[in-house]
Design a protein that fits this description.
145 residues, alpha+beta, OB fold (Dihydrolipoamide Acetyltransferase, E2P), 2 domains, 30% strand, elongated
Length: 145
């Protein structure tokens, strides 16, 4: 085998390994298939995606945030999408901008009428309503200690 054939063989091997790696990562990711998630509406969630990992987007319903008194990380809230809404349970650290009326994206599993989220992300606003460094503008109404 001459050097030109060895080079072509080596390049072909690298390409084949890369293609197999991309296929494997796409079809069987670690941590319970968290890397490839379908973005659905609440209508589709209730009808077609029970017990499947999905992603939802919507607005937190005003007055629906309920923080557990025994575990301050544990929160329930209603996520609105147009006329539809779903109850969401989340028990990790919440983003700083998490409050009533904010647009969020949640990722998790819908089971038994509750969306159990393990990822919560607030939408970044292009403009903030107030100066976030001014403590007098913080709303601590949702937090009951």
């Amino acid at each position: 085998m001459n050097s030109k054939n060895k080079f072509i063989f080596a390049v072909s091997g690298v390409i084949l390994v890369f293609v197999i790696w991309v296929y494997w990562v796409s079809t069987s990711p670690s941590e319970g298939a968290k890397s490839m998630v379908t973005f659905v509406t609440i209508d589709n969630l209730i009808d077609d995606y029970e017990n499947e990992r999905v992603r939802l987007g919507g607005r937190i319903q005003d007055g629906s945030i309920q923080i557990s008194k025994s575990n301050l990380l544990d929160v329930h809230f209603m996520l609105d999408q147009g006329d539809e809404s779903v109850k969401v349970h989340y028990s990790k650290t919440r983003p700083d901008l998490f409050k009533n009326g904010v647009e969020v994206i949640v990722e998790g599993v819908y089971t038994g009428g509750i969306f159990k989220a393990d990822m919560l992300q607030t939408k970044c606003a292009s403009r903030y309503e107030g100066d976030l460094r001014d403590e007098s503008e913080y709303s601590m109404e949702e937090v009951e200690i």
